[in-house]
Amino acid sequence: MYLDRKEFETKRNETGHYARAAVTLLANTPKSKEVTYWKDGKLSKGHIDMKARRWVKKIVLSHIHHVAHVWRYSCVPPKPFAVAHLGHAHVILPPDIETVDQFLAEVTEEIKAKFGVTALPEPAVKSNRGPSTYELFELEAELDDLDQVG
């Protein structure tokens, strides 16, 4: 995933996608050793590498959140805010697992052995917090749909 993203960012850099950022960096730090890259309207290899690393970290965190949410609440997490409300289109789900339940079943024994416990906490513990903002939005949308139909 990292290498694919680094290749993607490198291609964008080579086609001038980051020219504006390079101009800004050149204006703000004219004595940097990376000035030669910026003068060409490109980011340095270090900048590109860190952009790819940050992207991968965000994806891994979203995968951890997805698995933890399914484990805790026994349901798929709501769509990310950017997808649900801002018009973004892509969600990258955790790879190489049929279902999160299958994955959790496969690693349960390993987790118990690693941490020296005989059982894991009960997964589907519901909180008493009431509905989330997302759940309220979903309910409101469903009610609006019903009003339009009826």
Which spans of ≥5 residues are poorly predicted at pLDDT below 50?
none
**Structurally, how many domains make up the residues?**
1
Distance between the termini: 48 Å
Return the structural class.
mainly alpha
Per DSSP E runs of 2 or more residues, the count of β-strands stands at 0
User: Portion of residues in helices?
Assistant: 55-70%
Number of helices: 7
Topology pattern, helix = H, strand = E: HHHHHHH
Q: Report mean pLDDT, rounded to a whole number.
A: 81
Binned strand content: under 5%
Largest sheet descriptor = none
The gyration radius over C-alpha positions equals 22 Å
The best one-word shape is: flat
Descriptive overview:
The structure is a single chain. With 150 residues, the protein is mainly alpha-helical. The chain is built from seven helices and no strands. The protein is flat, with a radius of gyration of 22 Å. The chain has one domain. Helices cover 63% and strands 0% of the residues.
Could you give a quick summary of the protein structure above?
The protein has seven helices and no strands.
Topology (elements, then pairings):
Layout: H1 2-14, H2 19-28, H3 35-39, H4 45-73, H5 81-85, H6 100-115, H7 133-149
Helix pairs in contact: 1-4
Task: Describe the structure using short key phrases.
150 residues; mainly alpha; 63% helix; 0% strand
